[in-house]
Amino acid sequence: MPARVVVLGGGVGGTLVANLIDKELGRDARVTVVDPTGMHVYQPGFLYAALGQANGRWLARDERLLLRRDVGLVIEAASRVDHEQGFVELERGGSLPYDYLVLATGARLVPEQVPGMTEGAHEFYSLAGALRLREALRAFDGGHIVIGIAGIPYKCPPAPVEFTLMLDEHLRKRGIRERSRITLASPLNRAFTIESASKLVQPLMAERGIELATFFNVESVDAAAQVVSSLEGEKSSYDLLVLVPPHRGQSMVDDSGLGGPGGWVPTDPATLQHRSAERIFAMGDATDLPISKSGSTAHYEAPVVASRIASLVRGTAPRESYGGKVMCFLEVGGGRTTVLRFDYEHPPVPPQPSRHWHMAKWMFNRLYWATVPKGRIPEFRSRKERSAT
Questions:
Q1: Which of 104, 129, 191, 382 could link 14 by a cystine bridge, Cβ 3.0 to 4.6 Å?
Q2: What are the helix (H) ranges across the chain?
């Protein structure tokens, strides 16, 4: 009897790991993806949609078209996991038994946890939010734009800095930068969670007249007065407010007794197994690992999860472990981009922004649908690295 593998979530991690397991095990496994919408969304594109550089239709594909033919797809929400009996309860009353389960359930946006945020702020962490922000920017004709972060951790840590720098360029192209003020309100003592990246982007912000407000942890928004307040007692007035919403793990994970603080899945950093359930794996935004919540993380975790499940099914020694590898692009505007590559042991040493990395990111965005979800994983290297091989 083939092993039953159920993958919860059809994002980059869930889609990729399902295809890799099916490819590796063939008839030895029956793989099923459970996703509430059946649509795969390319979340890094939200940034471009908000700035009017991408069409929302380009950012979503039918999940069925991305999965291998033999991978099953259930378009329905999972309501609970019974990890003692080994089955997933579905929202409409059915159930799916499993031998191995992968939690690729992503993160949940909870803007309602910040009083006034839903009424007074925009965001670009959902497609609907990005399109609403695009329209707000089209109507914006000058004033004070505040970009802030309403909770840590959050997906794609470079995104707020990228948005700030690209917004500066967007307003310059429209000819309204001189009558606009841009402030990035950071909860830390620097612009970005990674210190080496902050040292690179802060001088760029200063050159472009972008203000940086540090130790500004968003507490509430007064939509009527157009004022955002911080836990530290600071207040900032705004004409347009853009906040990264607070993030939490999925309620289903907590309801199943599988979550830790914040609803994140307690995950072994090397094996990616649940710390209390060896037949359950977690990946991507769903985990509590001290690493970026991003598609890139899931992209590098998926081969490890697939390899380990294949080893368990075949009774062989596991060959692969996750070392925390992540690679993220950071666009700075002006057709230039840098890259952040790091792992658990090695912090990033970002190169100076260049057109080379900008082209690499441009290519990645366009190749995404034909590569990453289907297990064809592109590698990008600098000119120096290419010449050394």
A1: 104
A2: 12-25, 46-50, 63-66, 117-120, 127-139, 159-174, 195-207, 251-255, 295-314, 355-367, 383-387
pLDDT tens digits along 246-297: 999 999 999 999 999 999 999 999 999 999 999 999 999 999 999 889 888 9
Q: Is 341 exposed, middle or buried (0-12, 13-18, 19+ CB in 10 A)?
A: middle
How many Cα atoms are found within 13 Å in the side-chain-facing hemisphere of 205?
24
Q: What is the DSSP letter of 156?
A: S
- Give the Cβ contact number of residue 309 at 10 Å: 27
Sign of dihedral through CA atoms 197, 200, 201, 203? positive
Q: What does each C-alpha distance from 158 to 58, 149, 277, 352, 373 come to in angstroms? A: 22, 12, 33, 15, 22
Cβ neighbour number for residue 27 with a 10 Å cutoff:
8
Residues of the chain with pLDDT under 70: 376-389
Radius of gyration of the chain (CA): 21
pLDDT of residue 383: 60
Q: Which two tokens stand for residue 244?
A: 């990264």
Q: Can you state the angle between helices 195-207 and 159-174, rounded to 10 degrees?
A: 10
Tokens of 223: 């939509």
Do residues 66 and 374 make contact, with C-beta atoms less than 8 angstroms apart?
yes
Pair of tokens at residue 383: 């000119």
For the chain, give the number of residues.
389
The maximal CA–CA distance of the chain, rounded, in angstroms, is 68
Residue 23 and residue 71 in contact, taking contact as beta carbons nearer than 8 Å: no
41: amino acid identity, one letter? V
Residues 130 and 156: their CA atoms lie apart, in Å, by: 15
Query: CA 218, CA 232: separation in Å to the nearest integer?
Result: 9
Token pair recorded at residue 127: 């497609």
Residue 82, judged by CB atoms within 10 A of its CB (0-12, 13-18, 19+), counts as middle
pTM of the model: 0.92
Which of 283, 269, 274 has its CA nearest to residue 256? 274
Helices and strands in the chain, H and E counts: 11, 22
